[in-house]
Model the fold of this input.
Amino acid sequence: MRESREPLVYIDGELYPKSQAKISVFDHGLLYGDGVFEGIRVYDGVIFKLKEHVDRLYNSAKVLRLKIPMSKDAMTDEIIKTVRANGFKDAYIRLVVTRGVGDLGLDPRKCGRPSIIIIVEYLEPILGRGEREYGASVIISSTRRDPVYATSHEVKSLNYLNSIFAKIEAIEAGADDAIMLDSRGFVSEATGANLFIVRDSKLYTPPVTAGILPGITRAVVIEIAGKLGIPVIERDLTPVELMTADEAFVTGTGAELAPIGFINKLPINDGRPGPIFRRLLEEFNKVKRDPSNGVKVL
Ligand code: PXG
Done:
């Protein structure tokens, strides 16, 4: 699937080969993590849930008072053009809007125009394909999810240190990823993916008040479960409910649907993907290639 030539990166209206794609060291995206982003997938030439991702980007920017210097329609066109210029039918799009170039102070008013960056690359599903024999091993991180009254992950900002602390802890423990608890001690989400558990043939997932990013893949899974007649309950979950679940899995653009096999080395059932996960994955693999769920570009 990898192309031999360099991918082309969009920066502020121009396309650059990956090795030439650079921005200023005075950009507040670098200096302060001041900016917003989206990760989007292209399946078989269709940009999956493009409208939902663009809407979420503008909502993240709104909360940060970051005025994106382009309408949503124009942004959508630029994304489509960049995917076409790269010609990858299966790809991952990283859409980034930074605060722009400023001085060495925090004050965002000192920054000029926000920079718009669109990267198109190939990305294997993070945590492996859902068909793996054993689920991923995760730890419960000692770093708590940023609370909703602080740098809430409802805003998909460039500030991911909260997740990076947890990821480092997972790597040092020899695990694939970390599940983070919220400031109260209830289950929140993984470092870059949402969490579901299965108990008694019902799906449970933490609510947005537990500090999660309201994931687009999460919403798709909730919709699929509805179609399959699997009840979905959105409520706070305790760490013990997670560790004693019948099944557990994560969802996200990067991870797609990935089963969890072990939590703090304790197996979830026999550590293998469970029946409800497998049904949801089978349906998701159809939904993600359905052109009615995105924008056909190639
Ligand atoms: N929670 C967080 C904190 C995320 O960053 C999700 C949930 C899932 O949301 P979506 O809308 O994608 O279903 C995300 C998304 C990566 C990577 O490189 C992470 C995401 C997306 C793409 C790549 O780990 N995070």
In short: The chain has a mean pLDDT of 96. The helical segments are 28-32, 50-63, 72-86, 161-172, 216-228, 239-243, 275-287. The chain has two domains: 8-123, 136-287. Residues 39, 126, 153, 163, 189, 192-194, 213, 215-218, 251-254 surround PXG (CB under 6 Å).
